[in-house]
Amino acid sequence: MTQTPSTKQWETELLNVSMPRWDDLPEIEIYMDQLVKIVDRYTSALQLDHSKPITPAMINNYVKLKLVPKPVKKKYGKNHLARIIVITLLKQAFDIPAIKSGIEFQIHSTNAKDAYNFFCDHLESTIRWFIIKENETITIEHIKHGYAPIQMACTTFIAKLITENNLSDLLTQQVTTGETIND
Fold this sequence. Notes:
The protein is mainly α. The protein has helices at residues 5-15, 32-43, 56-64, 78-90, 96-109, 112-131, 148-177. The chain has one domain (5-177). Helix 6 runs parallel beside helix 7 (148-177). The model has no long low-confidence stretch (mean pLDDT 85).
């Protein structure tokens, strides 16, 4: 089966995803409405369900669940923003307790900045690995000691994202053309 134009366009958009690294995140502390806009901007291309963007209520729940530290005087810093970006993406493939355990493990194994930057690097390389055709040489790094949870989470999330998009495309094509998947 060939890819439909919408799949090719979506894959091109996915290949252009560039996650902000720690040093690219705002230096100044920001308010909730700014946090929501920034997280949405960086994660919207990677959302399986575009009707459920990040909301202030979700962020408040993450604080209550201790996935994210409490804001200081209603302001959020890099640590908050990085964690919420990671949670927003990974909650599409994992339950919250698993994400919390993974974040805690990773921060204790390294530090917030290195863990977040590695997450971004590996997420982008995983996208390229899944989409770029066999004549390209894109490899996923060997599992690094202490970073396996990040690497496996990124691989699982991107595989799920691509699978669900392709399945949706196949089903739409089947309805539109009247073909069955076995045709």
